[in-house]
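Worked example

This section walks through a single chain of length 197. The input is the sequence exactly as stored; nothing has been trimmed or padded.
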Amino acid sequence: FGVFLVATGVAFSIHANLGTSPVTSLPYTLSCCFGWTSGTWSVVVHAVFIIFQILLLRKNYKPINLLQLPLGIFFGTFVDIMNNALNFLKIETYPQQLFYCFIGIVLVAWGVAFEVEADIMVLAIEGFAVTASEVFKKKFGDVKMFTDCGIVVAAVIFGLIFLKKVVGVREGTAAAAILVGQMSKIFKKLFFGHKKA
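Given that input, the structure is written out below as tokens.
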């Protein structure tokens, strides 16, 4: 359910056209640079974040977490499906863009909260944030915000190098990078009564 919410939120952010959500800013930019869909590049990016987790945990890495890869494939597929499903939306004004961008941010944050709380398997990007928060003894929401910002910076760099311009990164991306981590903390407290989120 959490993965579905995140994918739906990403699709809303793409259609809002104010910059994709941070988790998709890099895949979206890569799709503009090299082809393939945002969903396909999402799978590639998730595979990279699995490698980051292995590097952080080394011998403490649990092989069961390799299931994040098929989960990433599921997520990437749902991003493409939901992106196509929302083609009916007519977004013509800036206030409408802001509205749908906000819906995207809320859905992504809500989905992240469910994923982490389920404690079964999370997407590799969230898995990296969970891993880093445990390794460095930092709050998950704060590490998630830092991770999202790092992904956005990478998207900007790829866009400038290969397209000579920034694509898929705008004010909506910045808002999501700042708000998703903080809102996920709120959702965790609201739905699951956590003291530490």
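What to look for: The two ends are 19 Å apart (CA to CA).
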